[in-house]
Amino acid sequence: MSKIKILGLCFLLTLLVTGCGSEEKKQEKAYLYEGPVADETASGGAVSGEAVSAAALGDATEYETTVVKKGSFKEEFNNTADIEYTSTSTIYIDQEDAILDSIKVKKNQLVKKGDVLAYYHVETSKSKMSKMKIENEQARAEYEKGLSALQTDLNNAKKQLSYLTDSVAKKMQKLEIKKKQSEIEEYKKREKEVKENEKEYNKLLKMRSKTPLISKKTGRVVDVNRSVIDEELDASTEIITLRNNDKWKLRVADANNQLRYNMDVEIRLGRKLNDYDHILKGKVVTTTMLTGVEDLDSEGNNKVYIEVSKADRKKYNFEDYNIYIHAVSFELKDTLLVDANAINEEAYEHYNKSYVYLLENGKLHKRFIVSNYHNDKVYAVSQGLEEGQVLALVY
Length: 395
Hints:
Radius of gyration: 43 Å
Number of strands: 22
Order of helices and strands: HEEHEEEEEEHHHEEEEEEHEHEEEEEEE
Number of helices: 7
Distance between the termini: 44 Å
Strand content: 35-45%
Structural class: alpha+beta
């Protein structure tokens, strides 16, 4: 009687242990079939094999299991991105005899339009300045003299008109007056050159003392050439290089050509790929396939550029974050999914065949499968298995 009670308690304990197992992965102990092993290498299709012998698996009589499920298979792209600025400008002092006195900005400094970048002066000789002054005075006198003569002719023509009584003569005189007025307007255009020369002289006169070099745009300083301070400059001497912080794209390496033109991607700003503070939308704007020209990084991977909206570029300071690009390059819905650890391979002729160990009625069966898509975690199976079947993870 006590024997029957002990057997009953053991049976109940077995049921409790079995019920606590995980659906996805659990410990199993199957008795390996000792019969003959089928010659599965004779066929390349996804067919069931015979029960596997104990010798084929060695001592692996205890193992975890996994269940074949239906779901979506995704090929995902994940990589870090860098900011690539697309607009830079170099600041020069295009002035003869210019000497650079000082530079007032530092590398990585943000400057605004109208800020002082540097100071310089012009060492123009007194004789040169005196010659320019005389030439400008002569040009002004000649211009004024010519204008005065034309104005006198016009006044005389108007006075003569007032003495005429014949209608035909008046008409002819009016045409003459109109002609002289046109000549004066045309002559006045010469004053522009005179004024420019006078302006240049006054500018040089002023620049002989300390003169500020003013930034014409907003940007960030990326290079400063302090080696030319106190040196005479020419028009090709680079002083400062600015980049336009509003014009940039994200650059990412795409080793496996997963990203396509006009493809939507996620931009994640944070510490790690899955530990981020902000998630934004981006779009692939250019690839090697689009341009027809290889654009490779230092490791030989294709460079792809991601466009960010103007609103997001203004809202977030991208330089304060690690930048990650996440995208789903391919998705296969409602397909059979198998844990990658359950997949085994063996050589067959000139390629490898994939197979799994299917657990049925406490026995393991070698089952060949067809899978065209997989990643490090899961295989998408198109032939050889059914949903709900249990597979052994034999390591």
